[in-house]
Design goal:
Elements lengths: L1 H54 L23 E5 L4 E5 L14 E2 L12 E5 L21 E6 L2 E14 L14 E7 L6 E12 L1
Parallel strand pairs: 4-7
Antiparallel strand pairs: 1-2, 1-5, 3-4, 5-6, 6-8, 7-8
């Protein structure tokens, strides 16, 4: 029993020593790996920084924002809507003007406010589709964050789209908006769905 016990003790001690050596080696190798990784990272970071510094312009000139130049308005429009993203620029007449009609023009809806009215809502309606009066044919390409501009009485009003939603086309529409903000609402038929209409809500960002 004594000999077996001694052998068992020796075996256990040997295993413990080997295990300790392996553990220490593993920690050492891992430490070397970590250090190497740090060196590579620092080296790449330094190279990137050097490249950035080398490519940085030495002379920086600041220029003033380009002044607003009104669009020519030979047709006597009340305002002109411009949406650069979809290459749209189209005027609209005042509410009681005979050509302020969706079958002829971009239409300034009767309940609308004017762009300069505090917390007002400019509501513009037009057809989509393929006809020559389908001024809102590409409105479906707009997303939240896109901008639309209205020129009115020598000023440029810039709006940013905040919400887009659909409603059933039944002759009326509910406009959901923040009534503490000056708003542009655009309404047209929903693309590829004759039973729906799409409403675009945009809030005033700036005036020039």
């Amino acid at each position: 029993m004594s000999k077996l016990s001694n052998k068992a003790i020796v075996i256990i001690a040997f295993i413990a020593v080997i295990g300790g050596i392996l553990l220490i080696s593993s920690d050492y190798l891992q430490g070397k790996k970590d250090k190497a990784y740090q060196k590579v990272s620092i080296s790449l970071y330094s190279e990137i920084n050097n490249q950035t510094q080398d490519n940085t312009p030495q002379n920086i000139e600041e220029s003033e924002e380009e002044p607003y130049v009104p669009t020519p308005n030979p047709n006597g429009y009340l305002g002109i809507l411009t949406i650069d993203k979809i290459n749209l620029q189209q005027g609209f007449f005042d509410k009681d003007y005979e050509d302020n009609n969706v079958s002829k023009n971009l239409t300034f809806l009767a309940p609308s406010n004017y762009p300069d009215e505090k917390n007002g809502n400019v509501i513009l309606v037009a057809h989509s589709g393929t006809t020559h009066i389908a001024y809102f044919r590409n409105l479906y390409q707009l997303n939240k964050g896109d901008t639309a501009k209205i020129e009115y009485k020598g000023h440029l009003y810039t709006y940013k789209i905040d919400n887009i939603y659909n409603e059933t086309k039944d002759g009326s529409v509910t406009i959901y908006r923040d009534t503490t903000k000056q708003t542009l609402t655009m309404i047209t038929c929903t693309k590829n769905d004759n039973t729906k209409q799409t409403i675009y809500i945009a809030y005033l960002e700036s005036v020039k």
